[in-house]
Write a structure and sequence with these properties.
502 residues; mainly alpha; Lysozyme; Membrane-bound Lytic Murein Transglycosylase D, Chain A; 4 domains; 3-stranded antiparallel beta sheet; two-stranded parallel sheet; 21 helices; 40% helix
């Protein structure tokens, strides 16, 4: 086995268990001729889509193995258009697409395709999870070219593109029970160690482009540690330390690990159950995704590749203001910029924002013509000792009613020193706040807090509003693991009691 003491120390300190617990609360054309399923119109993912993803992936990760249980340039501080990027431009060959001789692979699928756990998960994807798997296959073209290009650049097999199926169903809003986030299910510490920004304003784990680059680097580092792609994938899920300890416990393999070593570790139960199932799921997903027609997926709801321009915008710019300048919807801008988790760019700094392909120059020009009061929709205020809502409102020229609407109906007598408040400063922002659609600050776990359910709200909407997970909401409110129905007026705990766990 390769010498890996120094590398292991680095990975253990920064990345241990980096992506464990991936269950769910969208992918790019590759330039090659597509000979697979017929593409049909498909809308972008919705909140209901995310809920359905969560249910299917939760079932996938919790599924018992019952039947076989023993067996241009950016000018900082100004608005400027940049060069356009089309995901398909990055793509190369499909890395073994289906041909007359059948699919080929750049990871070892053939040696393990008939393993009982692999066949079990093939059956699962074709049976109980078939409807969602169809949607995930339809999402794949949105990012596939980009993912393959990033993997190729990092020296990682391109067929690990299918890891995104079992991690998140290619969802940028996926959140696991261990608070791993995004398409590649990074926990915050691992994300930061791979140069992803995670704070109250920006979560680049949700940025499919930056998160993919980080995931490719992480997988390459893990392969350098273990010398086997399946061990690297297992470590991606369960942590490098656990895999390393399991290898030490196997007799006679310390200097000669192979992909088979993963199955030896599984047979000895030296890995957690989720990790033992992780590689079989990957193999099963790859077998189907590489040859979907053979498995009956002959009509997929294909999502087109994301294509965009980038512009630099001033600080605290709302996605609604950008959508207005780009003559598109807030939903379209949010899909291109899912990492701005509060629907607004951070205060006190210019930021890059993606806009639909071909609109960059126009949007930049329109921003340059805007008065400052309309460019900046929200600012952040940190409560100081002795401040009241009326004083804060007077300072910014905002009524107490709008301040409360923009901050989860905060009580005037319950302000805390250091509390962060969102201040709607533009006319558009004030209109949104009055309608209850302002971005909400992330709440701290200091005491139980409640949310009164409004008409049309779902667990996914409420979880995103408060920066928590659906799993947490269910746990804090004594709900079943698959509960989705809410009653208007129902009171939900959105922060656990003091001392409660997240």
């Amino acid at each position: 086995m390769r010498a890996y003491a120094l590398t292991l120390a680095c990975l253990l300190s920064a990345c241990a268990g980096g992506n464990s617990g991936s269950e769910l609360d969208p992918m790019a054309g590759d330039g090659s001729q597509w000979l697979g399923p017929v593409a049909v119109a498909a809308p972008a993912p919705t909140a209901e889509d995310s809920l359905a993803d969560e249910a299917a992936l939760e079932a996938l990760h919790d599924f018992e193995f019952k039947s076989l249980a023993k067996g241009g340039e950016h000018v900082r501080g100004t608005v400027s258009a940049s060069a356009s990027l089309e995901v398909g431009d990055l793509a190369g060959p499909r890395g073994g697409a289906a041909s007359a001789a059948g699919p080929t692979y750049d990871i070892d699928i053939e040696s393990f395709a008939e393993r009982s756990r692999v066949r079990y998960y093939v059956d699962f994807f074709l049976g109980p999870s078939r409807n969602r798997f169809t949607i995930w296959l339809g999402r794949l073209p949105r990012y596939e070219g980009m993912i393959r290009a990033q993997l190729r650049a990092a020296g990682v097999p391109e067929d690990l593109v299918y890891l995104g199926i079992i991690e998140s169903g290619y969802s940028n809003t996926a959140v696991s029970r261990s608070n791993a986030v995004g398409m590649w299910q990074f926990i915050a510490s691992t994300a930061r160690s791979y140069d992803l920004t995670v704070n109250t304003w920006v979560d680049e784990r949700r940025d499919p482009f930056k998160a993919t680059e980080a995931a490719a680097r992480y997988l390459a580092d893990l392969y350098g540690l273990f010398g086997s792609w399946y061990l690297a994938v297992a470590a991606y899920n369960g942590g490098a330390g656990r895999v390393e300890r399991g290898i030490r416990r196997l007799s006679g393999v310390a200097d000669s690990v192979t992909d088979e070593t993963f199955f030896d570790l599984s047979a000895h139960r030296y890995l957690r159950r989720e990790t033992r199932d992780y590689v079989p799921k990957l193999i099963a997903a790859t077998i189907i995704a590489k040859d979907p027609i053979t498995y009956g997926f002959d009509s997929l709801p294909i999502l087109a590749p994301l294509v965009y321009d980038e512009i630099t915008v001033p600080d605290a710019t709302g996605m609604d203001a950008t959508a207005d300048r780009a003559d598109t919807t807030i939903r379209a801008i949010t899909e291109l910029n899912p990492h701005y988790v509060r629907g607004i760019t951070p205060p006190r700094k210019a930021s890059l924002v993606r806009v639909p392909r071909g609109s960059g120059t126009t949007v930049a020009q329109r921003y340059a013509e805007l008065p400052l009061s309309e460019r900046v929709n929200f600012v952040e205020h940190v409560v100081r000792r002795g401040e009241t809502l009326s004083e804060i409102g007077e300072r910014y020229g905002v009524s107490v009613r709008l301040l409360r609407a923009a901050n989860n109906n905060v009580h005037p007598r319950r302000l805390r020193i250091g509390q962060r408040m969102v201040i709607p400063v533009s006319p558009a922002a004030r209109t949104r706040a009055a309608a209850g659609r302002a971005p909400q600050p992330r709440l701290t776990v200091s005491g139980v807090r409640y949310h009164r359910v409004r008409r049309g709200e779902t667990l996914w909407i409420i979880a995103n509003r408060y920066g928590v997970t659906i799993v947490e909401l269910r746990r804090w409110n004594g709900m079943g693991p698959s509960a989705t129905l809410l009653k208007v007026g129902e009171r939900l705990a959105v922060v656990p009691p003091r001392g409660g766990t997240r």
